[in-house]
Amino acid sequence: MRNTLKGLLFASPWLIGFLGLTLYPIVMSFYYGFTSFNAFQPPKFVGLDNYTELFHDDLFWKSMRNTLFITLLGTPLNLAFALLAALLLNLKVRGMAAYRTLFYMPTIVPIAASTLLWIWILNGQYGLLNTLLSKLGLYAPSWLGDPVYTKPSLLIMGVWAVGNVIVIFLAALQDVSAALYEAAEIDGASTLRKFFHITLPGISPIILFQLIMQLINGFQYFSQAYLVIGSSGGLNGAQIGGPENSLLLYAVYLYHNAFYYLKMGKASAMAWLMFICVGVVTWAVFKGAKKLVTYGGE
Amino acid sequence: MVTSSWKKASIGIMITALTSVALAGCGSNGSNTSSSNNSGTKNAADTTNSSSSTNTSSSSTNETKKGRSDVNFWYLWGGTEGENMEKLIAEFNSSQDLYTVKGLSVPDMQKVIVALSSGNGPDITDNFSSNTASYAEKGILEPLDDYIAKDNYDLSDFVQGALKSGQYNGKQYALPINVNFYMMFYNKKMFADAGIANPPTTASELLDDAIKLTKVNDDKTLQVMGFPDFPLVYYVNPMSFALGGDFATTDGKLTPNNPGTLAAINLMKQYRDKFGVDNITKFNSSAKYLDATDPFISGHQAIRFDGPWFGNTVKNALKIEGLDYGIAPLPGPDGQPNLAGGGEVSASTFFIAKNAKNKDGAWAFMSWLMSKEAMTKFNTMFGNLPARTSVYNDPGLQNIPDFKVFADAATNANLKSFPAVSVQTEYAKLISDQFELAVNGKETAEQALKEADEKAGSLK
Prior knowledge:
The structure holds two protein chains of two kinds. By secondary structure, chain A is mainly α. Chain A is about 70% helix and about 0% strand. Chain A contains 13 helices and two strands. A two-stranded antiparallel ribbon of chain A has the order 1-2. Chain A starts with a helix and ends in a 9-residue tail after the last helix. By secondary structure, chain B is of the alpha+beta class. Chain B has two domains: about 55-180 and about 345-415, D-Maltodextrin-Binding Protein, domain 2, CATH 3.40.190.10; about 185-345, D-Maltodextrin-Binding Protein, domain 2. In chain B, the strands form five sheets. A five-stranded mixed beta sheet of chain B has the order 2-1-3-14-6. A three-stranded mixed beta sheet of chain B has the order 7-13-15. Chains A and B meet through α1, α10, α11, α12 and α13 of A and α1, α3, α11 and α16 of B.
C-alpha cells in the first residue's frame, strides 16, 4: 500500500499532466461537440446540430476529399519511396554513411523552412522545377496556382522528407536474419524472390507500423498546406483554402472553424469525427493485416 | 495470440485517439497579419450619439489614483512598425502619471483571440474593421459609447465609412486610426509606350487598355500583366463596389448576387479568356506581393489596385526609386459617371477587450492615441491615411508618398464598406470562393453568384 502510494507519487508529474492536459481536453472537446461555443460566451447545448451542420457543409466534404487524396496517394507513395531508399541504403557500398546522412538530412530541416524552399522550387514561372521541365520540352504546370496540381505538389514535398520512415525501415532490414538469405542463395533464389519471400515478410510488422503512422499523419496533414496557403493567399485573413479550396485539408478547415470563425463546437465535432474515422481505419488495417504480417517467434 | 493482437490494436487506438483529438486543442503558429485588410464594415444603424462638439483631453476626468496602474496593450505590428508603436507608447506614458501602458508585439491575430478567450489577453489591442461585427457579436469587445459620452469625445471629423466600420447594432465597438481603400496604380512609362494618354475611367476602357498593355512570352505565359488581376483579393470586393454593387441591402439582407459583382467577374473573365486562365493563375501564384520581385514594382504589371500604404512601402521600406506611377480612382461602370470614385473602405481599428482588467486605462490610452495630435503622428510614421479628415493639412503628413491623392479621394460618397454582419468572415470567404470559380471558368458568372445567393442564406 505504501509502495503503491510512493509509486503514484513518483508518477504524479506525468499523471497530473495526462489528466489535466490530455484527458480533460479530450473529454471537454467531446462535450463541446454538442454545444454552440465561441470560446467567449458560455457553451450552449445544441444536441447534434454541429454534426448535421457539418454534413450539409460543402467545405467540410471538400476538406474531407482533399484529405483522402493526400492520405490515399501519399501513404503508399511515401512507404514505397522510403522502402526503396532503405533497400538502396542497405547495400554494402563505400561511403554509405554519407548517403544515409543525405537522405535523412531533409527531416532535420524545420518544416517551415523546407516548405518555403519548396514554394520557390515549385514557383510556376521562375521555379527550378519548371525551368527544368520547359528545358526538356515538357509541360510546366502552375504547381501552386492550379487546383489540379496543388495537392500533388504537397505529395512531392512529402516524399522529399521521409527520412524518418527510411531510418526505421533500414533498422528493420538489418534485423532480417542473414541466415535466411544465405539459405535462399544456396537454393538459387533470385534477388526478387528473396525480396518477396524473405525481406518483405521479415519486415512486415514494421511496414504495418509505418502504414498506420503514415495514415494518421495523412489524416492530420496540416503544416505544409497551411504554409503554402499562407504564402500565396497571405494577403487576406480567412479567405484561404488555396486555389479553389484545393488545399483546404480537414485539419486546416478544423483550424479555420476554431480560430477564424470561433466555432469551437463545430471544430470539436470535426475532431471527433476525425477520431472516429482514424480509429475505424486503424482497426480495419489491423484486421486486414492479420494474415499478411508475420511476427518472428510467434 | 488473441490477447496480444488485441493489445496491439488497443495501443493503436490509443495513439490515434491522443494524436487526433489533441489537434482540436492545438495552438497556432500562423503568420496572418499583413498590412492589408480587404474588407470593412458597415452598419445598418447609421447614427449614434457618438458625435459631439467639444474636444476634451482624455484621461484628465478620471479620479486620481495612487500610483500608476498598468495597461496591457498588444499590437499586431512587428519590426519597424512595432518600434514606431513603442515610441508612441513611451510618449503616452510620459504624458500623464495615472497609467503605464505595456506594449507587446503579437503579430498573430489568432494568438490574441485565444489569449482573450482565457481572460489573459490584453486590455486594448488593434485589429481590422472586418472583424468588428463578428467580435462584437461574440462578446469580445467593450462598447465605447459610455466612455465617449463621459469624455464628450469628439468624433465628428472621422471619415464616416471608417467610423461606421467600428460599429455594430448601433453601438461603437472600435475606433479607426486610419482609413483604407483601394485606388488604381498605373505604370506611366508602360502607358506612354502603349500610346495611352489617360488612365481608364470605365470598365470597358480598363479592359481595352489592359489588353494593349499586356505582353506575352513565347510560351504564352505573361511577361507583363495589363489587368489588375494580381492580387486577386484587392479586386473582388473593391471592384464589385466600384461597378455599382453592394453586398447587402439597407435592411441587412445579404446580396452576393448583385450587378456590380457580376460585372466585375465578367470584366476579369474577358481578360482571362483572352490570355488564358492557366497563364494568369501561373502569373498570380508566382508573384510576391510588396517585395522587390512584386510584379508592379519590377515592371511586370501595368495596372494594380492597391492601398495608401503602397507608396510608403515602396519608397521608405523597400527603398525602391525610379518607379514612375500614377494613381486614379477605380474605373466605374460604363455610362454612369455619377458612380465614379467608388470602392471598398475599411480601417485598422483599436478595441478594448470586454474582459479587460484596466478598462479606464485602456480608454485613456485609446482616446489619447485617437486624438488629432497622436493620430497624426501615428499615420506619419506608418505612412497611412488618418481617420480624422481635419488633420489632412498637417505638414508632416504631406511627406507621405501619395498622401494628397488618397486624402482627396477619401471623402467620395461612393466608397462603401463591407456589411457589418456577424458572419462577416464566412460571408467574405463565400464571395471570394464563388468569384474564383467563375473567373477560373469552372462555373458561369450567373451560376456562381446564384449559388452564392443560396449559400449566403444559410450562413451562421
